[in-house]
Amino acid sequence: MSPHIVENGEKINVRDRLTDNLLDLSLMNVSEIPVDEIKNLRRATVLDLSNNRITQIKSNFADLIQLTVLDLSKNRITSICDDFGLLTNLRRLDLYSNQITRLPLTFGRLKNLKYLDLQNNPLHAEFKNMVGLCSDNNDCLNAAKRAVHFMKQVEKNVVEARIKERQEQQQAAQLAIVQLKEEKALAEGHSTDDTKSDKIKRKRKQDNTGNPVNSEQKESATIEAGGGKKKSRTDARKSSISFVLQRNVRKSDFEKLVSESVIHRSSSIGTADGFRTEVVLAGS
């Protein structure tokens, strides 16, 4: 960037305005501060920008960390950048007769500030009373001390409030995540219960309507259970009859089997010592 500024249509070399450590840019009808040009002049620790048309102190102004004295009086300044507190080498600040309504939050970081003039600015009445007048050098020294201390406390309170707010937001976000997980788990639990309930209902429906395992099966099972006894008795009789058929049966024994209805009398002809006959189960 060119090391020139324009005054009344003429280019002026900023370096030419430097005397020792004082850079005098007052009364030059300046509306924009030539920060880049000033920054290269490391020897310029005292900057006079009074009696110009400056309306803003922009963020790049904080690059001028070499400044120890700054005169911005009698301009049209309405706002000062939030990074202004980075000018920690600043010892004297003149903001007399501007349109400043508040100081930047970082103003309390100006730990080396010894002189401050805020007269003739539309500051809040309470703040103005707290800082006090700057009618003489001693008043301006006290004004600097009070303003720095007050703004330092303000920044601390704001930072703590922001941290608390951030923590509350994080806690709210974590709580929301936990609630979502609980709702999801609850929904999955209901889904599982519904599935089990549906299975039970389907099984009951099958049992009551179309499932072969019904009353007929139960009846059949009962019959089979009862029939087991009959079958066992029949098997016993068959085995008895089988025993009879395996040898000659005496007539008296044969008659006894008939009388007990174990066998029917056969038409077979008996022998002298008994019968060899084809017997039939009683009731068959």
TrEMBL record:
Basic and acidic residues compositional bias, start-end: 186-198
Alphabetical list of PANTHER family matching this protein: LEUCINE-RICH REPEAT-CONTAINING PROTEIN 18-LIKE, PTHR48051
GO cellular component: cytoplasm
Region annotation (Disordered) ranges: 186-241
Source organism superkingdom: Eukaryota
Record's keyword terms, sorted: Coiled coil, Leucine-rich repeat, Repeat
InterPro entries: Leu-rich_rpt, Leu-rich_rpt_typical-subtyp, LRR_dom_sf, LRR_domain-containing
Pfam families recorded: LRR_1, LRR_8
Protein name: AGAP007632-PA-like protein
First and last residue of the signal peptide: none
Segments forming a coiled coil: 151-183
